[in-house]
Task: inverse folding
């Protein structure tokens, strides 16, 4: 979308890796301070996490999928702090693709073509079959090492957890 409010032509980001569009399968888009666009979603073909990035304001995209071709979650969410990108989600759904996924995890890396770290647990529990809502820096650019997170447990009545994680620069 241009600064004047007009929309450009559509760009097919996923190619043949179209996004899964059933419940809990949204995409997550993040633009980092260097102007790079980051996008993550779940593939409709095999339910794998997909990640693509653009250094051309969304006109062209390159892929760098984490997870070595295994389903790790559904409904991934992007977060960024201290120069590091994270893809958050809950554990692998059992049965796949729409079962429960215990605990909450993330992949971490520098984004773009850089390598991804392991699927790392950050919250343990059998009741976190939920999506993680993430945003970078609660006060916008004033705290670039802070990620705000919110997630809920799925035992009724649902309890919402919200907090911040401060990452070392």
Result:
């Amino acid at each position: 979308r241009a600064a004047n409010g007009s929309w450009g032509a559509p760009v097919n980001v996923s190619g043949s890796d179209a996004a899964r569009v059933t419940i809990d399968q949204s995409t997550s888009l993040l633009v980092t301070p260097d102007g790079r666009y980051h996008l993550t979603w779940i593939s409709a073909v095999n339910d794998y996490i997909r990640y693509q990035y653009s250094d051309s304001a969304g006109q062209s995209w390159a892929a760098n999928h984490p997870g070595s071709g295994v389903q790790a979650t559904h409904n991934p969410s992007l977060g960024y702090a201290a120069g590091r990108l994270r893809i958050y989600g809950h554990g692998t759904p059992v049965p796949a693709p729409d079962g429960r996924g215990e605990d909450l995890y993330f992949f971490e890396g520098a984004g773009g073509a850089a390598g991804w770290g392991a699927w790392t647990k950050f919250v343990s529990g059998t009741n976190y079959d939920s999506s993680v809502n993430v945003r970078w820096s609660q006060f916008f650019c004033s705290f670039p090492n802070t990620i705000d997170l919110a997630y809920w447990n799925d035992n009724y009545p649902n309890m919402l957890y919200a907090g911040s994680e401060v990452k070392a620069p």
